[in-house]
Design goal:
One of its GO terms (molecular function) is catalytic activity. It comes from Myroides pelagicus. This protein is α+β, with helices and mostly antiparallel strands and 244 residues long. The protein is built from four helices and twelve strands; from the N terminus they run βαβαβββββαβαββββ. The chain is globular. The protein starts with 9 loop residues before the first strand and ends with a strand.
């Protein structure tokens, strides 16, 4: 069960598709962990949920585990969910937390076509000073609405048996689409932040990245903003305060 807490007034959460920490138009492929690290320190972020993370890949450095390196910079706990093997290493999604992680579960999500990239859902139970925060993050299929819908249905089934309080990620879909209609059966999409667009970074046109709460949770999502982080990635990050 997702057990809420009264011991912490607010938890600051960031969701970010980091594009393996390289600018979308960077032909030299410079890896920049420092910009997000500095942002997280400046804004006193408690939890980071990240997509498109490289671990020991050729393109980002065979000796570089991006999630561990970022966690070390921020003195955070972390977990990683491998979605695919890539260039001699791994690629996937991650959660970092200022507070200890009591448990982590990684779920494989279905796909409509065999050739499509594998996707997953990473769920962590985070130990707050008094109570727990159960948070999940995902990165849904980029090209197939059929796959996104199948993945959304799988997430709602997981939610019904092992409930999360927050779901974050790059959903690769806008509100009103079939995948998000499926997710909206279990999670609340806040109309107040519908105009906070996340792609592209310059002249943003769409909102496909989200932090949403379970309909069964008493959490409140406040101070929800997007931020373009020095041109890093091809997405804007989302920062929000979650109150109890």
């Amino acid at each position: 069960m997702a057990v809420e807490t009264k011991g912490v007034e607010a938890v600051r959460v960031v969701n970010y598709n980091v594009h393996h920490f390289a600018a979308a138009n960077d032909r030299y492929h410079w890896i920049d962990l420092n910009s997000l690290s500095a942002f997280a320190k400046q804004h006193q972020v408690d939890v980071l949920t990240l997509q498109e993370i490289d671990v020991h890949t050729k393109r980002s450095g065979e000796h570089l585990n991006q999630v561990r390196a970022l966690a070390q910079r921020l003195d955070m706990y972390y977990s990683f969910g491998r979605t695919i093997d890539y260039e001699g290493g791994q690629y996937g999604i991650a959660i970092l937390s200022k507070f200890p992680i009591a448990s982590e579960h990684f779920y494989r999500l279905p796909k409509g076509e065999l050739k499509e990239e594998a996707r997953g859902l990473l769920v962590n139970e985070i130990v707050l000073p008094e109570g727990r925060l159960v948070i999940g993050t995902t990165h849904l299929a980029s090209n197939s609405n059929k796959s996104r819908t199948l993945q959304a249905k799988a997430i709602t089934e997981i939610q019904q048996s092992q409930p999360m309080m927050l779901l974050t990620g790059d959903f690769n879909a806008e509100e009103g689409s079939e995948p998000l209609k499926v997710l909206a059966k279990e999670f609340s999409f806040d109309s107040r932040v519908a105009d906070q667009l996340t792609i592209p970074v310059v002249n943003s046109k769409k909102k496909i990245d989200f932090i949403v709460k379970s309909k069964e949770s008493h959490l409140s999502i406040e101070k929800h903003h997007t931020h373009a982080l020095n041109g890093l990635s091809d997405h804007n990050l989302i920062i929000t305060d979650v109150t109890f």
